[in-house]
Design a protein that fits this description.
Layout: H1 8-17, H2 19-30, E1 33-34, H3 35-42, H4 47-59, E2 63-68, E3 74-79, H5 81-99, H6 101-123
Antiparallel strand pairs: 1-3, 2-3
Helix pairs in contact: 2-5
Length: 124
């Protein structure tokens, strides 16, 4: 790996595990979506970011874009077989995160309290 580039598999990992990549993959597991439906389902994603995320995942072979020649234009997004595999892996991590959130919050409180005590000890 050169200093300017990233190993190809790490780049795909970055795409799949990006903030919006994860959410797109998980949503598309349920069914195909039109762009506006997907944007509403994900929430708080700009049109530009969702477009970029979908294009990146399409380029990686994870998302299929089906543009229908009708008026008004209709474009549906769905997972490819490869995308479904990736989405299943991401969903496992998302489920684990949701199930273990209480433990994470407890760890954060413990960390924050210890840090605050250290900071106060330095000031004294």
């Amino acid at each position: 790996m050169d200093g300017d580039g990233m190993c190809p598999y790490r780049l795909v990992l970055e795409h799949v595990t990006s903030r919006w990549g994860v959410l797109v993959l998980i949503e598309l597991m349920e069914r195909p979506y039109r762009f506006s439906e997907l944007r509403r389902a994900i929430g708080r994603v700009s049109e530009k970011m969702l477009t970029q995320t979908l294009q990146t995942l399409e380029r990686d072979g994870l998302v299929h874009r089906d543009a229908k020649p009708v008026i008004p234009p209709r474009v549906d997004y769905s997972l490819t077989d490869l995308g479904r595999e990736a989405a299943e892996q991401v969903r496992v991590l998302a489920t684990w995160t949701k199930e273990r959130m209480d433990d994470v919050e407890k760890a954060r409180r413990t960390y924050d309290e210890a840090r605050q005590e250290r900071d106060e000890a330095r000031v004294s």
